[in-house]
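sanity check both lines:
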Amino acid sequence: MFQPTLRLPRRAAAPAVALGALLAAATARAELIADFEAAVRAGHMRSAPSDTSTSHVEGQPSLTLHFGSPRLVWRARYLFNGAYTFQGDGSNAYANLLELNLAAQPTGRSTLTFAASASQGSTFFRLSQRAVDAARPELRPAGDLSRVGATALQAFSWEAAPGLALGQMLSFALDAPQDALSRANRQGTLSLSADRVYPRDSFGALYTARLAQLHPALATDGSTVRTLSNSLQASWNRDLDQQWNGQITAGFEHVAGRDQSSLHPVASLTMRYLAGVWTGAALLRHGASANLEEGTMSLTDEVVLRASRIFEFLPQGNLSASAGYLRSGPLRAAGAAAGTGTAISGDLGLTWTLWGPLQASMRYTLSYQPARGTSDAITTHILLGGVSYRYSTGEHTPTPVPTLGGRVDGGDAVRFPGEARPQ
């Protein structure tokens, strides 16, 4: 995983304070904004090897609550999706998504973040709801199956001394078939990091522990596989100039199962680009990872490219794209839950404002898995287009949830209201 570098004002303070007092103080100084959005979209999906083709229209109302103050920002969102199929198998579907994001500064030298989500819906819904420029390739079971998922993440960053940043992260993820919740796959992760920060470079160490409980989708005996992995990595993050940033991590990872264990190298490389209307990133990663949809653990090589561009000739026009390649190989420690296969993904999306609160969007998504074992190749094409209407109770754009970003100088960070950008 990539750990953001902390660059906060250097004021002496305790590393943490009670959040209750912070919430009470912030509430008295800021405004709660409610956003109502209603979208109507038409979609078409074609998949193989089943050679199915469906067309549908969907309604998608959502409610988002925003709150922002100089030291606390949070956002809560609920979305309902109802789809009516007018060409294809004739089935109708519904889906739900609930999200919560929070960022706070308990002290002048610390930042606390929290994010959680819960979703229920088909593979089509899950693919079409993910951000176009944040998609990643994944191996999935065949079919447009309805699943239930949940995630939670908590992270704390603290500038313990000038130029010394300490970090802690705790996360949990769950995924299960909607009609078999007892076969939920789970993974918990704990990370601890330390970084020595200079004006353009940071050097650090990262320890990560992961515990996974998996129910292999292909297993017929209802078996459960548990794995524990520990990794230790060194990292180097450098701002090459005002536009380019690069980060590399490398180390070793130990994965232990019931009867076997394995030790292998783990590494990642990230390049980021930020210049005016253009943003982009490239990610390369090698290491063990759990697939919660299939209930497998594998040694994975992954390449992801992402880009986004703002167009001046379209009102608030934004074009985003991402493409990824993933190859999973057997992992001895995973035993019966070892997964293999290859996945390719591609996403392209365009959004622009038609008039005032009325926005249009178009999107194309490709998911491809070559044949593996006795299974045929799986190909999914999704095309979506629609319009949405937004009404807000506030007179200004809601404050985005702050993030630390990836650059050493914090140039790509999203800041708290009133916080100055670094020079």
Q: What stands out?
A: The first strand starts at residue 32 and ends at 48. Residues 19-27 form the longest helix (9 residues).
